Structure formats: C-alpha cells, structure tokens
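re: ur question from the group chat, yeah i did fold both. here u go
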Amino acid sequence: DGVWEYLSNEQVVAIAGRAGSAESAARKVVEAAEAAWRAVDGGQYVDDITAVVLRAAPRSGSGGGRPVSKL
C-alpha cells in the first residue's frame, strides 16, 4: 500500500521518468505517495512506504524498442 493506493501507474512512471537516477526516482515516488496519502487522509496517518526502481535497458539488437523497418 502507499504507492499504488494513492498514485496511478501513469503518475509513478512520469515521476520516475523525470528523475536522474533510480535512487532519485524511488525517493521522488515515495515523497509523492506520502504527499497524496496526507492529502487524502488529512495528514492524520501515514504508514511506511517503500519503493524500488529498476532501470531496464533495451535488449541488444532490439532497435532500442522502436519498430524496425524491413525494406
């Protein structure tokens, strides 16, 4: 709970995508989830929130995730 209860997948991807590193992304996601939780619950209660962010590189030879034109 915490992250997915208060932030959508799209919000998490956007937050993490703007961060410079996986560590920064995790921190920013936790901060956003805490702020959303406090806004919904009036700041009365926030439990612990944990986030792990893994950055995945495109597979070698995959075209970087873009469609490859075959002429």
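okk and heres the other one u asked abt
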Amino acid sequence: FGPVAPVLSFSTVDEAIAFTSELGPAARVLLEATPAQRDAAIAAIREMLGKILTPTGIRRGYAAWIVTAER
C-alpha cells in the first residue's frame, strides 16, 4: 500500500457549494446557522471557490484519517 493523492473535482462553483453544504464541517455549521448567517457563509464560500476556479473546474486535494483499534 502506497501513498495516494486523492482529489475532489467539481465542474462549477455551484457544484462545489452543493457538496460543501451537505458534507463536511461546513455542512454542520450551515445547518445550525440562521438564514442570514447561511447566506453570508455561502457568499464567502462562493467567493473563495471563485478564486480557484479554472477552465477545467475546481480540483482540490483532500485527506482523511482511517483509524482502527483492537483491544
């Protein structure tokens, strides 16, 4: 087993926002936010994602920890 370079890939900013809004740490914050807070957060996410949008879309690396234990 060797290192893997996982990548998230989205065609559009809207696609990336939909993913971000439903999964991961931002999803929890957005779920508990007031409508005004949610709108402000989505606007900030949209601005940030717009800065990394390329002609081929948005590609971002990601990582996850997989932890197992035995007793």
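fwiw on the second one: The chain has a mean pLDDT of 86. The longest strand covers residues 7-10. idk if thats what u expected
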